[in-house]
Amino acid sequence: MRLKLILLISLSIGILLSSNAIAQKKEKKSPPKKSSSSGTKPSPTASAYFIGGFSGVTYKGDLSNRHSDWTPEVSAGILKEGSGRVSFMLQFGAGNVIGEDRGYIFAETATPNKFFSTNYYKAWGELVINIWRISSIKLFSSAGLGVMKFTPENEKGEPLIDDLSTRPKEEIYGANMFFFPLSIGTIFYLPNGFAVNLSASYIFNGNDYIDNVGEWGATAGKDKLITVSFKILVPPGK
């Protein structure tokens, strides 16, 4: 899975580099514009952007021992460009994750769910560190903090949080949790003022109940999520 993410990110950067080369060739055909700066790194076309886009989300936990099934997420927010290397993003999103393992073996007295479909809503902020910039392409990493409201359901669409037969009697959890995203990605600034953001994120979850399986689970650690995102950045006034 890690190899696939590395290849995807490398491919994304390659595509952006190719697009940037084409854009530069087109710019050479027009008369050169006067610039008040002698630097080779152009400033961002806007100090802030509206963000909107889609992500693919994959889960690993008690009902899936690898990141295999991908489900959609949509998000929107704002990016505030800093004057130095640090920027800030605030985003809101909604999505779904699924998992299933009909052959999962539990203790004889355990009766957990072997399938789940979890809808969620979340809000989070991220500090963005601008690692590297050349021409119109920027490489960044980010770390953040967010809160998520999630609802695991069974095959019939019934909430699993209310089905106490799927957990030990004393095991009760809330449907809200904190999470901590770590991301790496690229931003390509287009000549028309817009920008494209391609990124991959690893989500550290605050609890182990995305799949509704906790104490009866055999997988160590909390449930894990990975997202791969494509987002459009729109400057105000466009």
Plain-language structure description:
The protein is mostly beta strands and 238 residues long. The protein has one domain: Porin (Beta Barrel), CATH 2.40.160.20. The protein has one helix spanning 2-29, and strands at 48-60, 70-80, 86-100, 115-134, 137-153, 176-189, 195-205, 224-234. Strand 2 and strand 3 form a beta hairpin. The longest helix has 28 residues, at 2-29. The chain is elongated and about 60 Å long. The chain starts with a helix and ends with a strand. The relative contact order is 0.21.
Strand and helix map with partners:
Elements: H1 2-29, E1 48-60, E2 70-80, E3 86-100, E4 115-134, E5 137-153, E6 176-189, E7 195-205, E8 224-234
Termini separation (Å)? 38 Å
Question: Mean of the pLDDT scores?
Answer: 83
Count the domains: 1
> In CATH's first tier, which class applies?
Mainly Beta
Query: What is the CATH topology classification name?
Result: Porin
Question: Overall 3D geometry?
Answer: elongated
Number of helices: 1
**Proportion in β-strands:** over 45%
CATH architecture: Beta Barrel
Q: What are the secondary-structure elements, in order, as H or E?
A: HEEEEEEEE
User: Which quaternary structure do these chains form?
Assistant: single chain
Low-pLDDT residue intervals, each spanning 5 or more residues: 1-41
How many strands, what sense, and barrel or not for the largest sheet? 8 strands, antiparallel, barrel
Structural class: mainly beta
> What topology, given as strand order, has the largest sheet?
1-2-3-4-5-6-7-8
> What level of helicity do the residues show?
10-25%
Radius of gyration: 21 Å
Count every beta strand, where a strand is a DSSP E run of 2 or more residues: 8
